[in-house]
Specification:
It is a single chain. The chain is mainly alpha-helical. The protein is built from 32 helices and five strands. About 0% of the residues have low confidence.
């Protein structure tokens, strides 16, 4: 009689050659004579799994283990069979048994990572993928799945780095570039995100993914103000799939930006009733519904969207911000504040107010009147720049919109040219990024070079304009360079009641920017540091600066508009009073407000929320504000 060992050896050879039927028959022949043979049961389970019957395979593998043999390979194969037969909990148990017998087994860690990710237990998933990478740092699939889990945790910066690592190892995998693009979109880096989405498309993904990517590309154009390009991509996605919710939501948002409220409403209303609610859809519906008396319906849909278990933190955040805005608009201020609070808490605490205070102290200590006199150019190299600055939500967008209606003015929006120039100076001069050392090394030649770079960026906005505005609020941090590079340039410092300013920041989803705005105490401290720094600049620098209070613009728009235009050295033009008719793209949080006639409801808005502002008031009072 042929021994079971010989028969199993033959069966293994047939399995290796792809002859599954003969392999299975030989295993059954062994089991007919020796029904408790663990090796035959194991191999029959593997052969059956390979043949596509994972449920029966799992039974054979369990029988093999029942013979009292704790074999990690059998447990590992049972894990595969249970996973594919729809029993992830059983599969996870099998992989844990493998790890108990062979600690560090990378296959089991990988499979557990996948299972936890599918269960929305992303923290556990990340840990298991980390164990894989300890043994095999060049495992591209572990890199990719780890990045995907980090994205689910809203650890977006880490996820972005993870996708970058995975792309080196999986250079033709569309999933890597699609996920990478999503991470970059959330980080508000639309141009980079678009490049990744395009790379994903080049890998010819399945049709549904192609539609997703087209919608994603549309979103990146939308974020940068390319409404025509965004519309084209959204429409291309809808041609492939008219039911695609994100493409519909994106196109509805384009209509909304163009003030085609009817078009936006007609498009998004049918999608808004679908269950489960799509986050992008219900947020788009919430934006347009109040124009048609359906604010309550929008609230209902937003609340329904929260019931989904699969929401990512950034989606939860979008829903809470949208709900807060709706409830504020109908006077439900306590409920609105709770939504804004929850939205901000979902960001986590990534801002250290002590660090910003220390940086402010360093600026004040490092830059004095002697430095201002030494670095100031004798004459401004250009009359193009108009600087509009102050705290975010203090009226900078409104002032720019008024000016940009003038035929000789181009609105540049929030240009990051100046902070990029400042950030590049230490490397350019070959020194550490210590401000005192930096100021000591800068000379007028460095300032002239910086000025030329900045003017080139302004000319790129509109080569024919006589003035170009830059309304990046935090340019107040770089007033020392503005005063040195552009002596006499008009600087408009926008102010607003401290509580209104801070609450408006708290109520706004700035996504990846202005981390201080997510905590009322941090907000108050940041505002105090801003005021301290502005006071130092006034005492130190020779500034051509006009203070414009938001409340004054609301109270007497024409008088203030005339003063602003005259301050910029321009003749008055009546078009500046029609700022709400200006069709130029406004890429900041204030896009909706600046396209409506002046209204007073934002003045003294903080009074509706006084019972919730104790932390903010305490922080401001400590700073004597």
């Amino acid at each position: 009689m042929t021994s079971p060992k010989v028969l199993i050896g033959r069966a293994a050879g047939h399995y290796a050659s792809g002859n599954l039927k003969t392999a299975a028959n030989l295993c059954r022949r062994v089991l007919k004579e020796w029904p408790r043979n663990a090796d035959a049961l194991h191999l029959l389970g593997v052969v059956t799994y390979k043949a596509g019957d994972s449920r029966r395979a799992a039974r054979y593998l369990k029988d093999a283990l029942a013979q009292g043999r704790a074999d990690p390979e059998i447990y590992r194969n049972l894990g595969f069979a249970l996973r594919d037969s729809g029993d992830p909990a059983g599969a996870a148990h099998s992989y844990r048994e493998v790890l108990a017998l062979t600690p560090g087994d990378p296959v089991s860690h990988f499979q557990l990572g996948v299972i936890f990710a599918e269960r929305d237990e992303a923290e556990q998933a990340v840990w298991h993928f980390d164990q894989v990478l300890l043994h095999d740092p060049e495992n591209g699939f572990a890199q990719y799945n780890r990045a995907k889990a980090l994205l689910a945790l809203s650890r977006i910066t880490e996820a972005e780095r993870g996708y970058a690592s995975a792309s080196r190892l999986l250079a033709t995998d569309y999933r890597v570039y699609a996920g990478w693009g999503m991470a970059l979109s959330i980080l508000e880096r639309p141009e980079e995100a678009r490049r990744k989405f395009v790379l994903a498309l080049e890998q010819e993904p399945p049709p549904p993914i192609t539609t997703d990517l087209l919608a994603g590309i549309g979103g990146t154009y939308h974020d940068q103000g390319g409404l025509d390009e965004a519309r084209a991509k959204y429409e291309a996605a809808r041609e492939r799939d008219p039911t695609h919710p994100d493409a519909a939501a994106g196109l509805a948002a384009v209509y909304d930006r163009e003030r085609d409220y009817q078009g936006s409403y007609d498009l998004i209303r049918p999608f808004s009733a679908e269950n489960p609610p799509n986050v992008s859809v219900v947020v788009a519906f919430a934006r347009v519904a109040p124009h048609f008396g359906e604010a309550e319906k929008a609230v209902e849909r937003l609340e329904a969207a929260f019931a989904q278990d699969s929401l990512l933190p950034h989606q939860n955040r979008r829903l809470h911000f949208a709900l807060g805005k709706l409830r504020d608009s109908v006077g439900e201020w306590d409920a609105a504040f709770q939504d804004y609070r929850l939205a901000n808490e979902l960001y986590g605490d990534s801002h250290d107010p002590e660090v910003y205070t220390q940086i402010t102290d360093q600026k004040i200590k490092a830059f004095g009147q002697a430095d201002a006199a030494r670095l100031r150019l004798r004459k401004s190299p250009s009359e193009l720049p108009v600087f509009i600055l102050g705290m975010p939500r203090s009226g900078t967008s409104l002032v720019e919109q008024i000016l940009s209606c003038h035929p000789r003015v181009a609105g540049g929006g929030e240009l990051f040219t100046l902070p990029n120039i400042v950030g590049g100076l230490p490397g350019q001069l070959g020194i550490e990024a210590d401000l005192r050392s930096l100021i000591g090394r800068i000379d007028p030649g460095t300032v002239e070079t910086a000025a030329r770079t900045y003017v080139e960026a302004l000319r790129a906005v509109d080569p024919g304009a006589a003035r170009v505005t830059d309304k990046l609020p935090h340019n107040f941090e770089h007033l020392w360079l503005i005063a040195a590079a552009f002596p006499g340039a008009p600087i408009i410092h926008c102010t607003r009641h401290p509580l209104d300013t801070c609450l408006s920041c708290y109520f706004q989803d700035f996504a990846g920017r202005h981390a201080y705005s997510r905590n009322l105490t941090h907000l108050g401290r940041h505002y105090a540091d801003y005021r301290r720094l502005m006071g130092h600049w006034r005492d130190t620098l020779d500034l051509n600066m006009m203070e414009v209070a938001y409340e004054d613009v609301v109270r007497d728009t024409e008088v203030l508009s005339r003063k602003i235009v005259a301050f910029c050295g321009l003749d008055w033009d009546p078009a500046c009073l029609e700022f709400h008719e200006n069709r130029r793209y406004v890429g900041t949080a204030s896009f909706d407000q600046v396209r409506r006639p002046i209204y007073a409801r934002s003045v003294g808005r903080y009074r509706h929320y006084e019972r919730h502002t104790g932390e903010l008031k305490d922080a401001l009072q400590v700073a004597a504000i």
